[in-house]
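Task 17 of the worksheet. Students: predict the tertiary structure of the chain below and write it out as structure tokens. Keep your answer in the requested format; marks are given for formatting as well as content.
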Amino acid sequence: MKKNNIIKIAIVAVVIAAIGGGYYYSKSISAAKAKNAVKYTTVKAKTGSIAVTIQSTGTVSAATSDDIISSNNGLISSITVKEGDTVKKGQTIGFINDTTLQQSVDSATLKVAQDNTTIANNKTTLTQSVSAATLKVTQDNTTIANNKDPQKVESNNAQLQKDKEDLSTKTALLASASSNTSQLVQDQTDLNTKTASLAKETVTSPIDGVIVTMSFKNGDTVQSGKTIATVVDMKSLQIIVQVDELDISNVKNGQKATITFDALTGKTYTGTVSKVSQLGTTTNNVTNYAVYVAIDNPDGIKIGMNGNANITVSNKDNVITLSLDALQTINGKKYVLTSIPDTTSKSSSSSKKLSTSNMQLVTTGLTNQTDVEIATGLKAGAAVYIKMPTVSTSTTSTSKTSTSKTSNNAGSSSFGGAAAGGSMPSGGGGGGGN
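Model answer:
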């Protein structure tokens, strides 16, 4: 009797275990299916702007700068500025004293004065001589007019002719003395040259700007041709960025850019492409081209700062845009999912299938890293679906694998698990537009 009871109890235990195991297996399958369920999110097409930008990094420099060069040899004195000071064009910043140059100017000045004195004295003497000769001719004419003696007429006329010739000669000498100033002109030119050199002893700023380097100080001796200081126009700051050869053809003068600096947190500057280098530099088989971006209002920016520039190479306003994640590519054509595919259980491997009503063929325009322009196929406000990443489970492993979305950049895509490589999805229709 006891043996029969034991057998019965054992049978009941086996049945209970089988029922429990089946229940647990059923719950596990249900949980797996729940985890493998495809989930979707929706986004809407909207009217707005889209821009394509090229991002690169670079360093700030000045587009306009000038060196103050010494034109003379001498001793520097009276420098009144220092590095960091703002100066105006033509502002005196110091002097270069050259005693020998001053002496040469004094000597040339004296020579010009002597030339003028000599010319003036010659003119005075010759003028007096012409006046005397003129008087004598006048007297001859008076004598001839008053004396009618035939015996003296001939001699008086001869004297008059002689005195006229003398007057003509002296008048010519006076005219020559007034116009023959070649020596004076030569000496004056020499004086002007030396005076100009002396004027260069005054050191002035060639442009408006800030003195960024000062190479000499008061009391130093400087030679002609040496750089005394460098002035930079801080309003002409630019950032020079390097653009890859694959993108450089899209960059043009006049394009706008936004610029940020790690050293200037929270500030964004605007700029304009002012120059695109025609000569590239190659490093590790990659060729880059220098692009110069003039900064509009460079307040607070310092030369040498590193920054990031986003150059807008193309943009459109008032167009329909959509999140790039919503765009799918099938056989080279672009589609969006306009409704969630129906669930079918006709096969043992239940999955979601596409129908022609699930997809909408679209044509696209500008595309950037986040959005795409929808040229045709969708209206503003239209909702489309994006399949969310799924988490799959394996009966032979406890590890979980995350499957991410694919974008149109991959060249292929899938709707609801349907293959989209070389052929359209099977089952549930297969069109979606041409």
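Marker's comment: Residues 362 and 378 are 7 Å apart (CA to CA). Residues 345-354, 394-434 have pLDDT under 50 and may be disordered.
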